[in-house]
Amino acid sequence: MAEHSKNHTALVTGGSRGIGAAIARTFAAKGMDVIIHYNRSHEEAERTARQCEELGARAVTVTADLRSKQQIVQMKQHLESLGMLPDVLVNNAGIAHYGMLIDVTEEEWDDVMNVNLKGVFLMTQAFMPEMVSKRYGRIINVSSIWGLTGASCEVLYSTAKGGLNAFTKALAKELAPSGVTVNAVAPGAVDTSMLQHLETDDLEALKEEIPAGRLASPEEIAALVYFLSLPESGYITGQIISPNGGWLT
Fold it and tell me: Where does the record place the Ketoreductase domain (predicted)?
């Protein structure tokens, strides 16, 4: 399998921990420059950056509230000054919400939609013009299996991820003539802090529902993201790929 040019750069939102950090480390191990975005997790982002540097990559951290267009513009200006605009944009940052729809407040609705959906729109709009100009780029959105099937007590989160899947499909058609691909990875259950709310018995019951009999590791999700970022994956676009251990087929 071909690898990226040594001067290719990837920007990973929500890259301080979990799936995002695994994606950043995977890119770094392949020799790419890595931009690790965070909102509040400064120490964790710096730790991930050090791990990437130990793998031989150039790594920088940047901060922005993805609900704010102004902060995203400022982040882009900073990256321009470093000569590090991304060839690969991984929209990974997101927040979950658990609870009955009847109890969802308007503020909770706005917050989940703004981070999971509006943030992707703002980031993509900010960074895709250079990809279009170069006639090369990869935009990879980290979605969820719940965006495909829906989940009881996760109506808000499922709606946001379903919207992200539609965004992916539509934008892929818009950018395909420019050599820019847009895909989404929609993982099933992954061994990250997002599942910390589950009791041990509930976690074991979840694993029993999955034909593979286990949770995914963040590194397994990162491997798929890396594959979609490759130059040779240029004919794959508009796809929602769900690594879920056979949970959804």
Answer: 8-188
Find the catalytic residue in 38, 157, 226, 235.
Answer: 157
Superfamily of domain 9-241: NAD(P)-binding Rossmann-like Domain (3.40.50.720)
Q: What is the pLDDT tens value at each position of the chain, 249 positions in all?
A: 456 555 799 999 999 999 999 999 999 999 999 999 999 999 999 999 999 999 999 999 999 999 999 999 999 999 999 999 999 999 999 999 989 999 999 999 999 999 999 999 999 999 999 999 999 999 999 999 999 999 999 999 999 999 999 999 999 999 999 999 999 999 999 988 767 667 788 888 889 999 999 999 999 999 999 999 999 999 999 999 999 999 998
Extended beta strands in 78-136, E state: 88-91
The domain locations on the chain are 9-241
Whether residue 98 lies in the annotated active site: no
Handedness of CA 183, 190, 154, 126 (dihedral sign): negative
Beta bridge partners of 172: none
